[in-house]
Amino acid sequence: MRLFRSSFVLIGSLAIALASPVGLPGADTSLQAVFNRMDQASAKFKGLKADMRKLTHTEVINEDSVDTGTIAVRLPKPHDLRVLIHFQQPDDKQVMIAGTKLDVFYPKSLIVQEYDLGKSHRNQVESFLLLGFGSNSKDLLAAYTVTLGGAEAVAGEPSTRIELIPKQKEMAAQFPKIELWISDNSGISIQQKLHSPGGDYSLATYTKMQLNGNIPESDVKWTLPKGVHWEYPQK
């Protein structure tokens, strides 16, 4: 489960809501309407590219850290998920997820750290990473108790916030609550908040999102320079 937490935080975790909660007239913000939008988006989801801002809050020292960069997600066919995140500020770092492998490249030190997420948990990892990015209501309701949060704007985009409580005890122990802000326009999550015990949380906000275009394989792969050293922290 720690690896699930690391991977999800790396590709999405959560940051300051970029706008105060406001009512958004005109959009049907009932829970069923949100599900309908998500189901429509899920049926045609093939990938996305976006700018990304990730805030991590550590409650015990009341400290926030912020990373900014880009994310590319490619899902050309079921169970063929590829993700590449390039954090540019404050430190250059790239995260690549393919199948059950999660690799983190640190250009300054020329080190790649590789993690094996486990073949036996592949479906769980995939559904966790895709949470809000192409998830459908059936999958959500099977794994979570879902409630309506309400209409809010994120970076000026109308959305509806929903709250998810994991049904699986092991997952709930790691993440007591997850919040998703589902775009009223696209049916895709434009903000995700992952709560941890003790008041810690991570918040990821996505802007300038490009959906379902022809995301080439090159956008979710990196080209490593010579002299890279590989490490395997799990061993």
Secondary structure layout plus pairing:
Elements: H1 2-12, H2 31-44, E1 47-58, E2 63-74, E3 82-89, E4 93-98, E5 101-106, E6 111-116, H3 122-129, H4 137-143, E7 144-154, E8 157-166, H5 169-174, E9 177-183, E10 189-195, E11 201-211, E12 229-231
Parallel strand pairs: 6-12
Antiparallel strand pairs: 1-2, 1-11, 2-3, 3-4, 4-5, 5-6, 7-8, 8-9, 9-10, 10-11
State which percent range the strand residues make up: 35-45%
Average of the residue pLDDT scores:
83
The CATH class designation is Mainly Beta
Helix-strand makeup class:
alpha+beta
Give the strand line-up of the largest sheet: 7-8-9-10-11-1-2-3-4-5-6-12
Most strands sheet: 12 strands, mixed
Report the strand count.
Answer: 12
- Distance N terminus to C terminus? 17 Å
Task: Give the total of domains.
Answer: 1
> SSE string, helix = H, strand = E?
HHEEEEEEHHEEHEEEE
Shape: globular
Write down the Rg: 17 Å
Helix content: 10-25%
Note the quaternary state here.
single chain
Which homologous superfamily in CATH is the superfamily?
A: Lipoprotein localisation LolA/LolB/LppX
In short:
With 235 residues, this protein is α+β, with helices and mostly antiparallel strands. Helices cover 20% and strands 42% of the residues.
